[in-house]
């Protein structure tokens, strides 16, 4: 907006434009910070992976979510990944950020095997009673990131970077259907 106003002959800087947009109640459409906030009523589990060597497949799985920008908004993508093999066991896409698509990915992954430890961040989807209840019912230990520990889930975060660089940014999806097919 600042560049366009300058091209029209207005002497403005980015701070003035930001202030005026805020005053008008206009804001950009992008995922806002603090998306991984636990629900106050949900239990947060301790971090169990400190000093644990990951030496076999199905020892530790983890999950994470990311947003994919579309022309008219965003969709959320969740994946379940094995830490030893770095293999994506399952994934799901949703237009909303409710827990149902996370459960869909979890159920699909648990259909093939069971990990000893399941690791996630402290987002409301992963701390929900439905999500942790399925893990507990299967006899799986639950591990969660501590606050400010983004690198604890580095394997899934790196996968998101690869997916976005190799697919999402190149395709510039218009609809959720296009994104899911991609």
Describe this structure in words.
By secondary structure, this protein is α/β, with parallel strands linked by helices. The protein has two domains: 1-30, no CATH class; 60-181, Nucleotidyltransferase, domain 5. Helices cover 36% and strands 20% of the residues. It has helices at 2-7, 14-24, 100-110, 124-127, 129-137, 154-171, 176-181, and strands at residues 60-70, 73-82, 88-94, 117-120, 141-144. Strands 3-2-1-4-5 form a five-stranded mixed beta sheet, sandwiched between helices. Strand 2 and strand 3 form a beta hairpin. The longest helix has 18 residues, at 154-171. The two termini are 31 Å apart. The mean pLDDT is 83.
Q: Can you summarize this structure?
A:
With 182 residues, the chain is of the alpha/beta class. The chain has helices at residues 2-7, 14-24, 100-110, 124-127, 129-137, 154-171, 176-181, and strands at residues 60-70, 73-82, 88-94, 117-120, 141-144. The mean pLDDT is 83.
Can you lay out the helices and strands and say which pair or pack?
Elements: H1 2-7, H2 14-24, E1 60-70, E2 73-82, E3 88-94, H3 100-110, E4 117-120, H4 124-127, H5 129-137, E5 141-144, H6 154-171, H7 176-181
Parallel strand pairs: 1-4, 4-5
Antiparallel strand pairs: 1-2, 2-3
